Amino acid sequence: MAQLKYSRQRESIKDYLYSTTEHPTAEMVYKNVRKVYPNISLGTVYRNLNLLVAIGDIIRLDCGDGFERFDGKTSTHYHFICRECGRVWDMDIPQFENIGNMVPDNIGGVIEGHSAYFYGKCDECIKKGLTEKEA
Protein backbone atom coordinates (compact mmCIF):
# COMPACT_ATOMS: atom_id res chain seq x y z
CA MET A 1 0.00 0.00 0.00
CA ALA A 2 1.26 3.47 -0.86
CA GLN A 3 2.39 5.82 1.87
CA LEU A 4 -0.53 7.92 3.12
CA LYS A 5 0.07 11.66 2.70
CA TYR A 6 -0.02 13.54 6.01
CA SER A 7 -3.06 15.75 6.55
CA ARG A 8 -3.52 18.18 9.44
CA GLN A 9 -7.26 17.91 9.08
CA ARG A 10 -7.15 14.10 9.25
CA GLU A 11 -4.92 14.28 12.33
CA SER A 12 -7.38 16.70 13.92
CA ILE A 13 -10.25 14.27 13.26
CA LYS A 14 -8.23 11.42 14.73
CA ASP A 15 -7.16 13.49 17.75
CA TYR A 16 -10.78 14.40 18.45
CA LEU A 17 -11.92 10.78 18.25
CA TYR A 18 -9.07 9.63 20.49
CA SER A 19 -9.99 12.27 23.07
CA THR A 20 -13.72 11.62 23.37
CA THR A 21 -15.79 8.76 24.74
CA GLU A 22 -19.01 10.01 23.11
CA HIS A 23 -18.96 7.88 19.92
CA PRO A 24 -19.86 10.86 17.72
CA THR A 25 -21.61 10.91 14.36
CA ALA A 26 -19.82 12.42 11.35
CA GLU A 27 -21.76 15.64 11.89
CA MET A 28 -20.59 15.82 15.51
CA VAL A 29 -16.99 15.27 14.37
CA TYR A 30 -17.46 17.99 11.76
CA LYS A 31 -18.76 20.51 14.33
CA ASN A 32 -15.83 19.85 16.68
CA VAL A 33 -13.10 19.85 14.03
CA ARG A 34 -14.47 23.12 12.60
CA LYS A 35 -13.39 24.79 15.85
CA VAL A 36 -9.78 24.21 14.75
CA TYR A 37 -10.27 24.20 10.96
CA PRO A 38 -13.24 26.49 10.20
CA ASN A 39 -12.97 25.93 6.43
CA ILE A 40 -13.13 22.12 6.57
CA SER A 41 -16.06 20.67 4.64
CA LEU A 42 -18.42 17.95 5.77
CA GLY A 43 -17.35 15.97 2.69
CA THR A 44 -13.72 16.11 3.83
CA VAL A 45 -14.73 14.84 7.26
CA TYR A 46 -16.68 11.95 5.71
CA ARG A 47 -13.81 11.02 3.36
CA ASN A 48 -11.29 11.07 6.18
CA LEU A 49 -13.52 9.08 8.53
CA ASN A 50 -13.94 6.42 5.83
CA LEU A 51 -10.19 6.37 5.23
CA LEU A 52 -9.41 6.10 8.95
CA VAL A 53 -11.84 3.19 9.24
CA ALA A 54 -10.30 1.49 6.19
CA ILE A 55 -6.76 1.69 7.62
CA GLY A 56 -7.90 0.60 11.09
CA ASP A 57 -7.18 3.81 13.00
CA ILE A 58 -10.82 4.14 14.13
CA ILE A 59 -13.92 1.95 14.08
CA ARG A 60 -17.41 2.57 12.71
CA LEU A 61 -20.43 1.66 14.83
CA ASP A 62 -23.95 0.94 13.61
CA CYS A 63 -26.09 1.44 16.69
CA GLY A 64 -29.41 0.93 14.93
CA ASP A 65 -30.41 4.58 15.07
CA GLY A 66 -29.78 5.34 11.40
CA PHE A 67 -26.51 7.17 12.09
CA GLU A 68 -22.99 5.85 11.80
CA ARG A 69 -20.94 6.60 14.87
CA PHE A 70 -17.17 6.52 15.22
CA ASP A 71 -14.85 5.34 17.97
CA GLY A 72 -11.16 6.04 18.42
CA LYS A 73 -10.78 3.02 20.68
CA THR A 74 -9.96 0.19 18.28
CA SER A 75 -9.24 -2.58 20.76
CA THR A 76 -11.98 -5.19 21.18
CA HIS A 77 -14.60 -3.82 23.53
CA TYR A 78 -18.36 -3.76 23.87
CA HIS A 79 -20.93 -0.99 23.82
CA PHE A 80 -24.13 -0.16 25.70
CA ILE A 81 -26.73 1.77 23.74
CA CYS A 82 -29.59 3.52 25.53
CA ARG A 83 -32.75 3.02 23.50
CA GLU A 84 -34.29 6.07 25.19
CA CYS A 85 -31.69 8.83 24.68
CA GLY A 86 -29.41 7.17 22.10
CA ARG A 87 -26.17 7.64 24.01
CA VAL A 88 -23.45 5.04 23.53
CA TRP A 89 -20.98 3.93 26.20
CA ASP A 90 -17.94 1.68 26.23
CA MET A 91 -18.52 -1.22 28.60
CA ASP A 92 -15.69 -2.15 30.92
CA ILE A 93 -16.25 -5.91 30.93
CA PRO A 94 -13.97 -8.82 30.01
CA GLN A 95 -13.97 -9.93 26.39
CA PHE A 96 -15.89 -13.01 25.37
CA GLU A 97 -12.74 -15.02 24.71
CA ASN A 98 -14.43 -18.28 23.71
CA ILE A 99 -16.66 -16.78 21.03
CA GLY A 100 -13.81 -16.75 18.52
CA ASN A 101 -13.18 -20.44 19.17
CA MET A 102 -16.83 -21.47 18.79
CA VAL A 103 -17.73 -19.72 15.56
CA PRO A 104 -15.22 -21.23 13.06
CA ASP A 105 -16.84 -24.65 13.47
CA ASN A 106 -20.06 -23.15 12.10
CA ILE A 107 -18.63 -21.22 9.15
CA GLY A 108 -15.39 -22.97 8.25
CA GLY A 109 -13.48 -19.69 8.16
CA VAL A 110 -11.18 -17.61 10.32
CA ILE A 111 -12.52 -15.10 12.85
CA GLU A 112 -10.49 -11.90 12.91
CA GLY A 113 -12.59 -10.03 15.46
CA HIS A 114 -16.08 -9.51 16.82
CA SER A 115 -18.32 -6.84 18.30
CA ALA A 116 -21.33 -6.85 20.58
CA TYR A 117 -23.92 -4.23 21.41
CA PHE A 118 -25.99 -4.25 24.59
CA TYR A 119 -29.28 -2.33 24.50
CA GLY A 120 -31.40 -0.99 27.31
CA LYS A 121 -32.16 2.15 29.26
CA CYS A 122 -29.43 4.17 30.99
CA ASP A 123 -29.61 5.29 34.63
CA GLU A 124 -30.36 8.89 33.65
CA CYS A 125 -33.33 7.87 31.49
CA ILE A 126 -34.62 5.54 34.19
CA LYS A 127 -34.43 8.35 36.76
CA LYS A 128 -36.03 10.77 34.32
CA GLY A 129 -38.89 8.30 33.71
CA LEU A 130 -39.45 7.86 37.43
CA THR A 131 -39.51 11.62 37.96
CA GLU A 132 -42.01 12.12 35.13
CA LYS A 133 -44.30 9.42 36.55
CA GLU A 134 -44.19 11.03 40.00
CA ALA A 135 -45.23 14.41 38.60
Please describe what this structure looks like:
- This protein is an alpha+beta fold and 135 residues long.
- The chain has 6 helices and 5 strands; from the N terminus they run αααββββααβα.
- The strands form 2 sheets. Strands 4-3-5 form a 3-stranded mixed sheet, with no helix packed on it.
- α1 packs across α2 (26-33) and α2 (26-33) packs across α3 (42-54).
- The protein is flat, with a radius of gyration of 18 Å.
- The N and C termini lie far apart (61 Å).
- The mean pLDDT is 89.
Protein traits:
alpha+beta, three-stranded mixed β-sheet, two-stranded antiparallel ribbon, 6 helices, flat, 135 residues, 39% helix
Describe the secondary-structure layout.
Elements: H1 8-19, H2 26-33, H3 42-54, E1 59-62, E2 68-71, E3 78-82, E4 88-91, H4 99-102, H5 104-107, E5 117-120, H6 123-134
Parallel strand pairs: 3-5
Antiparallel strand pairs: 1-2, 3-4
What's the pLDDT, averaged over the residues?
89
Rounded to an integer in angstroms, the radius of gyration calculated over CA atoms is 18 Å
> Considering DSSP H and I runs of 4 or more, what fraction of the residues is helical?
25-40%
**Proportion of residues in extended strands:** 15-25%
Estimate the global geometry from the Cα principal axes. flat
Count of DSSP H/I helices: 6
Which structural class is indicated by helix and strand composition? alpha+beta
Residue runs with pLDDT of under 50 for 5 or more positions: none
User: Could you tell me how far the N terminus lies from the C terminus, measured between alpha carbons in angstroms?
Assistant: 61 Å
Largest sheet: 3 strands, mixed
What order do the strands of the largest sheet run in, or round the barrel if closed? 4-3-5
Number of strands: 5
Spell the H/E element sequence: HHHEEEEHHEH
